[in-house]
Amino acid sequence: RKVWTWVSYLEEERMPAAPLKLFREYQSFPQGRNGFAVGLKLEGLDPVRPSRFCVLTVAEVVKGYRVRLHFDGYPECYDFWVNADSTDIHPVGFCETTSRKLLPPKGLKEGEFNWTSYLKNCNAQAAPESLFKTLSTPVTPSGFHPGMKLEAMNKKKPSLMCVATIMDIVDNRLLIHFDNWDESFNYWCEASSLYIRPVGYCQETGTPLTTPPGYKDSNAFSWEKYLKETNSQAAPATAFIPHPAHEFQVNMKLEAVDKRNPILIRVVTIVDKDDHRIKIHFDGWDSNYDLWVYADSPDIHPVGWCAKTGHPLQVPPGVVDLVGKVGQGCPTPGCHGIGHVKGSRYGTHHTVIGCPYSDVNLKKENLLQDRLSGEKY
Fold first, then answer.
1. Global confidence as pTM
2. Where are the MBT repeats (predicted)?
3. Domain annotation for the chain: domains and CATH numbers
4. Which residues of 66-76 are buried (b: 16+ CB within 10 A; e: fewer)?
5. pLDDT in tens, 167-179
């Protein structure tokens, strides 16, 4: 059979590639190369608890632009993938120079941790600063300051607009925390994001505002009163300059990271959309596997991204696969035995129990125990 190409596939399918102009800069073709190497150490945000900066080590670099990061001192099952230009990673010393709290590796107390002696003890090197993406001109969003209140969309429950606080600001990104909510709901967004709105937006637009859980006057919530009670300020309405909504359309094709097996990038088609998200269908797979993804996610890319960065693209099952069958023949249709439901510790699987796509595992959101459970922080 002939080799799979995007050009002939788009012709066969009679569907368009999502135009390049719809993608954000960090989703599009990268300018630099991926200079990260296994063993280099760095600081970065925990994807599960986005307000925490942690000590990380590069555990794997796929040919291409992606890097698997490991939390020092913790099991490999918590490893996670980022692109080399991710804004969630920083050079060693970032937290110290910017007066932020760095969570030390497991087993070390906060006061005991020191990068110089730690690198020496590990016989390891810090990732060079030149590898990290820096904004050509440092932008601090004007008008926003930590502690200010606003109304924000809850990304884990997108139908809710909630009372929220800016917890931190790094470059042009704000850390949003929902008042009285668990920190796992926190997220970072650009100052121009459509997820955040000024105080009073919900009242003006007739949108229900979700008040902080446990707040005594939730039925008669008044921002004026709440700001006094919390001794805080509202972010000024003039600071909000939202960028235009996404323009992705149904039937457009693109390349996307497979969340269930994030070492892989697959051919996908947009099958639905809302104001903030697109629903992606993995071509050649059952619609059970379809996923909603935020349109500003760093895990979606234009057609040709894999070819440009050198990352292997998983073509739809049923056509000749350039990667070859890596695993040992998993019984799930379309799966080649790559990856494992228990995370990055295992590269392959050959049973339904270990398969990230099997019916047994499909509906299980998170099989991992919380990484920090039982620890004081």
1. 0.87
2. 4-105, 113-212, 221-316
3. 6-18+248-321 (2.30.30.140), 27-131 (2.30.30.140), 148-239 (2.30.30.140), 326-369 (4.10.320)
4. bbbbbbbebbe
5. 999 988 999 999 9
